[in-house]
Structures are given as C-alpha cells and as structure tokens.
C-alpha cells in the first residue's frame, strides 16, 4: 500500500485556523514487530527519542488515558512535557499522544504514529507514518512551525530506524555476532551502495552557499529525484594536487565512509568529474557553536556541561578509529543537529591517520578495552626505586568487568568487582598521600573507589567503597577535582 492510503485511513486531525498540520514518512529496514516494540513503550520513549533524558509515569497502566512526564535534555529549548496516550491499537499498530502540559513551544500538540509492513530490498521492512497538529506560535508562520516540528520528528524517526535496524541484525544473526561486527558489516554494505551511486552535479538543485574556501565549497542542495536536502562539499582537484592534500582528502573520505557514529556527520555518497570531487553529506540544521553563542550570549551551567560532554564524545569517537583531528577549531568544526553536537569535516587538512610503530603490546583483557589513564608510578604500591620516579602506570578498564594496572610491559595487578562492563576511569587520583584512590564507573550503575597504594597483603582490600544511586549505566565521568 502507498503511504497516502494509510494517511487517509488513520491520520485524521481537525485543525483550527491557528494550527498547522503535516505528516512525516520513514522507511525502516526492520520488521514491524521490532519497530512496534519500541514505539509501543509509552513509558520508555528514551529508547529511541534522542531528546528525552527521563520519563516517569504519572497515571495509568500504559493503556489509553495513561499520562507520562518527559524530561528533555539540557541545552534544548524545553525542559518538561506532560503527555497523554490518546490512541492505542496493537492490532493495527496505531499510537496517538497529546501534550497536555509542560515547558516547551508545542502548544495543543497531538500526533498519530502508525507502522505498517512493507518489503524493502526483498526483506521485511516497516513503513512508519507520523502526523501532527499544533498551534502556530505568535510571530511564526505556518511553514516555519511545520518545518520546526518535522525536523524534530525526523530526528526521532531516524533514531528509531537506527535502533530497529540494529536489533534486526542481531536477531537475524542469532546474537552470535556482536554489535561491533554488525556495524562493520553494515558499513561495508553502505560503502558498496555509496560507491555504486552514479551522480552528477546537475542532479542536485543548489539552494544556497554555506561556506567558501580557496580549495572547496560547501553548499546546501536538494536532490531533484527525491527532494531530500543535503550538504554538498565540492573540492577542486587541481588545488588538492598543488597543495599536496590528496592523502588528507582520502583520509577524510575514508573516515566518513568507515565510521558509524552518531557524533560524525554521515556521508551519503560521493562522485567526481574531471575538475571536482563531490561529497554529499547529511545537512545538520542547528548551526555551529559560534552561532549558538551568538544566539544565547551566555550558556547555563547545565547547557555548557551538556555541550562539552557531547563534544568530548565526538572527539573520542574519532580517536577510537585511529584518526586524530590535527587542526580542530571548536567554534567552527562542531555543528548541531537537533540531536546534539556533531563533528563536521570542513577543514581539508584536518584528518591524519595514525601510523605509529607499536612500542608495547598489552595482552590480558578478555573483552574490549573501554578507557585508559596514566597515573604517576610513585603514587602506587608498584613504586620501589627512585630510578623510576618519573615513570607512569597505565590503568585500563574493560568490558570483561576488570581494571588492570600495567607497568614494565606487563600486568601488575587486576581488580574485579563490577557486575558488568567497566566503562569509565577518573582522570585524577583522589585522596591524600597515604591513601590515594581512583574512581571507576560501570554499566551496573555504580561508582567504585579502588586503592592505588594497596600492597595486596592479607586483610588489606583494594576496594575502598561502592557508591550507589544512579538509575542508568555510567557512560561519562567528568574531570574530578582533587579531594583531601
């Protein structure tokens, strides 16, 4: 069935003259039951909605009439939203909500979301349709309001697509292949699809210039065949050759093709002609950090903390794939979609692939290493001789639930205690000279303090404290102040 059939059948609204109405359609390469299992959880919208930080049920048992309160992530133009479940049909896969209160711009907002089976590339897929009606704020036009709301919905549905497709891959492979291998396989398929694209600049309708440099142009364009809006990066080949930047551009393209991260702008496809290389990338609406500061003037502590944490994770996502950003401009090279900050690659000589020789090889963890920190050797029980006063101890955490201390090219100590993967290490030692500890956090939602000066004698435990209270897995520990 065509989307128009389902829209006529299920998506019925009665807007007033001061309201706008529109619809968003998304095709997802995952079966209906997987997609519906995410959409149906009225009490857990954060499973796929990137704006939601927390959801608490205020009334009901997840049937019609149930009410939830949603907390929005810091830094966005909203804080809370109280929403009521208006429609629910598990057979037809229909869910409708209405916003009844909250601190946000969406007054008298109601939406209907339906999911329908379809075949995509000879496999079971899902057609998702979400329609809405909302008041037009004073000073805004119908088109401006619809554009804003559709941008939010598109981000939600894109996230729903990513989560659903990942679950579908895991189900199909029976859980035998981990998430990292699933992503690698998907990136390979995406790369083949991208390289198979045959395009030309004439197939893109130019809307406006975004940025211009000596060797490149960044333009906003619309695909004439589909109407989708993209960012086009146009690189002049003669300038790349004369400046010796061919390898830099190749590294940049390889990174965009190979890395599957929400923090790095996505490369849709690339093509070239005799004079130029073209990179077609997703267009992010939020502007860069400089635009944010000009608009807000001063950020609140919560907003600044949010943007800094997201920016650190974006840089970390590059480092995880053996790339470094050699000329990162914080005010220009971070741009925002409605999901948060993303690194963009506008600096042609920005990426350098790491090709350093291997100096040491540490083998001991039985699963992926999640964090690494260097601490002074003299502050640990490993210190025995003034000859080594300037040396460091490498501390690593891992998904095998352990922390290991490395010195002299071998593991000197292993700590175990978490009931899940250890995700983060503190960047500083805490405490006084006689009892320094370091903090680690894990997916079991606890923080544990481990002694760095324990000699390991009988009765002298390394684990000094376990801190409880977090409701979610710990994924990021900010820099810690020295405590005494």
TrEMBL record:
One of its GO terms (biological process) is intracellular signal transduction. It is an enzyme of class 2 (transferase). Its EC number is 2.7.11.1. Pfam families: Pkinase, Polyketide_cyc2, WD40. It comes from the Eukaryota. Residues 179-220 form a coiled coil. Residues 204-484 form the Protein kinase domain. PROSITE patterns: PROTEIN_KINASE_DOM. GO terms for molecular function: ATP binding; protein phosphatase inhibitor activity; protein serine/threonine kinase activity. Keywords: ATP-binding, Coiled coil, Kinase, Nucleotide-binding, Serine/threonine-protein kinase, Transferase. InterPro entries: Kinase-like_dom_sf, MobB_NdrA/B/Cbk1, Polyketide_cyclase/dehydratase, Prot_kinase_dom, Ser_Thr_kinase_AGC, START-like_dom_sf, WD40/YVTN_repeat-like_dom_sf, WD40_repeat_dom_sf. It catalyses: L-threonyl-[protein] + ATP = O-phospho-L-threonyl-[protein] + ADP + H(+); L-seryl-[protein] + ATP = O-phospho-L-seryl-[protein] + ADP + H(+). This is non-specific serine/threonine protein kinase. It comes from Artemisia annua.
